[in-house]
């Protein structure tokens, strides 16, 4: 099945040239324009002559900030991504909904619509979880929810919430999510029995917190929720702080650098404003490299997240989303800078295509850039390279600084989420890793381990099979040239989803890669640039 999906994908890939021909009419090239993005202009009328698949690609191209004329440049707030962790009944939805409702994400019209529906359904005392339930329901029905709905603002930051209702969804979103989480918000219910259930030995809370730590999340905020259900008891709060401190310390977090905030996501206590119901709470504090920070509310704790350090000092890794041929300009690969920087004049290598050439210019939002940095969606013009030489899934890197190479094989820790049968050596599903979509063979099951990501105990050497719920170390071999990296070195290129039967059956983190060394094509432009 995996192979069939892979072949289908290749046929789709081959439609790219027809996109260029069919959409040629859609691109109006302005000869006087000196940037290649402003040379791109198309409207929906010209989409009629283009195949459905190509229309999707065109819309994707337009939706890229690269070609979006409405995006204005300007100093924006820093973006941070937070992942919300908590037991199903901890009040995650209410708390997140409260922040999104009060601080931004949802437009007035949507709120009015929801409030009207709530009143009609007798849910007149409009509560925040309902907002989130509505959004989730719409998302599940396949209505694409504007991702802005999952965002809110603090005085310093634009915050994006990474949230998932179910356990499997959580693992999938954390590993395959486009964005790396900068901070975790652990929500603990203070009610008698609820707290204990949430962090019990086999509790999902523990596993999710472990997963976040393994994926590099080093900042944490603990919100002790439902304080109203304990009559705002200081003794209960202190008891929970003590227990949770031990719990998070075992995972790897330093409790001294973690703010603990007693809240009620439902009533709003200590959410955005200081609560009058807990006069005993003198505020949270956390130790940072820059000194101690203090505050009273959950919003302040989020606003005091240490600004994320984007990996611009690492070598360049830029997975290609698409490659366009633009009249009068040439070949323009498009993608998001994951690590490092890309600059005009740089000699880059594309892997696994093994093509080396010079970057002529780099653009974003119709503007030429002196450099593209992590998080930027850029288009860049390359010399002497045809659209047939490179494609989506290739990785662009600096030829002089740890250039990317083809992966002959790699070892990964894989968690099987839902597969109807058993998985053994020889299984060949499709792997989605960064922008690559390629069938890979499970060539050897090396060992089965007891829990994902923790200091895992080995259960069995060379198991014959693994099934849903199992975690294993596996050697994998791509069916076609592919470029991946170890998660510890380049996180966005070291996590993947295993797709089969039209669903994600497993996810994994790459431990080590065996790379292929071979001479490739070096363009004249690259040779010339190399001599400078």
UniProtKB/TrEMBL annotation:
It comes from the Eukaryota. Keywords: Cytoplasm, Elongation factor, GTP-binding, Methylation, Nucleotide-binding, Protein biosynthesis. Transmembrane segments: none annotated. The keyword ATP-binding does not apply. GO terms for molecular function: GTP binding; GTPase activity; translation elongation factor activity. InterPro entries: EFTu-like_2 (IPR004161), G_TR_CS (IPR031157), GTP-eEF1A_C (IPR054696), P-loop_NTPase (IPR027417), T_Tr_GTP-bd_dom (IPR000795), TRAFAC_GTPase_members (IPR050100), Transl_B-barrel_sf (IPR009000), Transl_elong_EF1A/Init_IF2_C (IPR009001). This is Elongation factor 1-alpha. It comes from Lichtheimia corymbifera JMRC:FSU:9682.
């Amino acid at each position: 099945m995996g192979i069939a999906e892979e072949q289908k994908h290749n046929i789709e890939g081959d439609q790219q040239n027809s996109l260029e021909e069919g959409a040629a009419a859609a691109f109006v090239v302005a000869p006087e324009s000196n940037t290649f993005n402003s040379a791109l202009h198309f409207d929906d009328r010209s989409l009629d002559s283009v195949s459905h698949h190509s229309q999707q690609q065109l819309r994707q191209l337009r939706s890229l900030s690269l070609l979006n004329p409405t995006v204005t440049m300007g100093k924006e707030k820093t973006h941070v991504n937070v992942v919300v962790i908590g037991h199903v009944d901890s009040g995650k939805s209410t708390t997140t909904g409260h922040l999104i409702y009060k601080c931004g994400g949802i437009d007035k019209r949507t709120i009015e619509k929801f409030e009207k529906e709530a009143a009609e359904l007798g849910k007149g005392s409009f509560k925040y979880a309902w907002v989130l339930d509505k959004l989730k329901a719409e998302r599940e029905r396949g209505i694409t929810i504007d991702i802005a709905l999952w965002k809110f603002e603090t005085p310093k930051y634009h915050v994006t919430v990474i949230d998932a209702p179910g356990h499997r969804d959580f693992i999938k979103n954390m590993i395959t999510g486009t964005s790396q989480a900068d901070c975790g918000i652990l929500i603990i219910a203070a009610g008698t029995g609820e707290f204990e259930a949430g962090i019990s030995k086999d509790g999902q809370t523990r596993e999710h917190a472990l997963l976040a730590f393994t994926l590099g999340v080093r900042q944490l905020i603990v919100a002790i929720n439902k304080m109203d259900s304990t009559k705002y008891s200081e003794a209960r709060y202190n008891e929970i702080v003590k227990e949770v401190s031990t719990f998070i310390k075992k995972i790897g977090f330093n409790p001294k650098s973690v703010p603990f905030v007693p809240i009620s996501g439902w009533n709003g206590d200590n959410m955005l404003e200081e609560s009058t119901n807990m006069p005993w709470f003198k505020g949270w504090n956390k130790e940072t490299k820059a000194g101690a920070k203090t505050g009273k509310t959950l919003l302040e704790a989020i606003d005091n997240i240490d600004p994320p350090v984007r990996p611009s000092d690492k070598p360049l890794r830029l997975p290609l989303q698409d490659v366009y041929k633009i009249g009068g300009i040439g070949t323009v690969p498009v993608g998001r800078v994951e690590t490092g920087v890309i600059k005009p004049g740089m000699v880059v290598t594309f892997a696994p295509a093994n093509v080396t050439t010079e970057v002529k210019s780099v653009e974003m939002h119709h503007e030429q850039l002196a450099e593209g940095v992590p998080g930027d969606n850029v288009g860049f013009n390359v010399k002497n390279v045809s659209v047939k030489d490179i494609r989506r899934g290739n990785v662009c890197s600096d030829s002089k600084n740890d250039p990317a190479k083809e992966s002959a094989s790699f070892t990964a820790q894989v968690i099987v989420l839902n597969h109807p049968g058993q998985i053994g050596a020889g299984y060949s599903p499709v792997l989605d890793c960064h922008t690559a979509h390629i069938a890979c063979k499970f060539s050897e099951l090396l060992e089965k381990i007891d829990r994902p990501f923790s200091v895992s105990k080995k259960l069995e050497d060379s198991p014959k099979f693994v099934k849903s719920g199992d975690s294993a170390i596996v050697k994998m071999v791509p069916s076609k040239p592919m470029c991946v990296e170890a998660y510890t070195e380049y996180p966005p290129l070291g996590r993947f989803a295993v797709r089969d039967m039209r669903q994600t059956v497993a996810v994994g983190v790459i431990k080590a890669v065996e790379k292929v060394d071979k001479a490739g094509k070096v363009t004249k432009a690259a040779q010339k640039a190399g001599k400078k």
